[in-house]
Amino acid sequence: DSLLENKIISRYLSFMNNQTTPDVHPVLKYYESVRENSVERENQIKKEYMPRVLLQASVWGRGSSVSAQDQFRPLYTGIGIERVNYLMGVGITYNIFGFKRKQLQQNIQKANTLLAEKRLEEETAFLKNSRKQNMIELTTAYQRLQEIPRQLQAATAAYRQKLALYRNGLTNILELNAALSVLYRAEIDHAQAKYYFTKAVFDQALLENQLPALLQTLN
Question: Could you tell me if 197 and 142 are in contact, meaning their C-beta atoms sit under 8 angstroms apart?
């Protein structure tokens, strides 16, 4: 599809002329969230073993149909509350036997946080190197794609010339087959150049988190 090929080439030229800072890649977002979650878990462990201050209060009341002077009143007078008592206090709790367990959990979680940071650094470096490598491959594939049509045109012209000479009896079948082999090779190289260039463009879109935009451009 020559139209699709032209769209892909236009997409590549537009990218080369308007290079901007790529968006944060979803893979890096994932590892950043893993690291942040590990840091939050580490802080949570610290809070779990901190002293706790508790404020407690209790209120209760009672009523009776018998008064304080031992007078027997009507029964319904005992439904209401006549006396009220309350209690309020402040308490502090601390698990003095959980110190070793706290240290163990903190050490494990710190190791998990360090591992998450290392993975984030590795993925960041890998993505950065992949972008550089893909840019080299993309440039090379584009240059190859621009060069191949000239070779194909030359191979086609050489084959037609050999075919005309063969039809007029001025050359043999061996030279004609040799020219045809060169033409086939040039056609194969042209198809491979299109494939490698298209693959490099899609790889670039994946690395730059621009695949949806690329697909929308090609529709």
Answer: yes
CA distance 184 to 187: 5
> For a pLDDT cut of 70, what percent of the chain falls above it?
84
Which neighbouring-strand residues pair with 53?
92
Angle at 169 between CA 165 and CA 170, to 5 degrees: 55
Residue 63 sits at φ, ψ, to 5 deg, of -140, 155
Answer for the pair 191, 153: CB distance below 8 angstroms, yes or no: no
The Cα–Cα gap between 116 and 34 comes to 6
- pTM listed for this prediction: 0.62
Q: Cα(61)–Cα(193) distance, rounded to whole angstroms?
A: 92
pLDDT at position 142 is 87
Q: Residue 70 region, left (φ>0) first, then alpha (ψ -120 to 50), else beta?
A: left
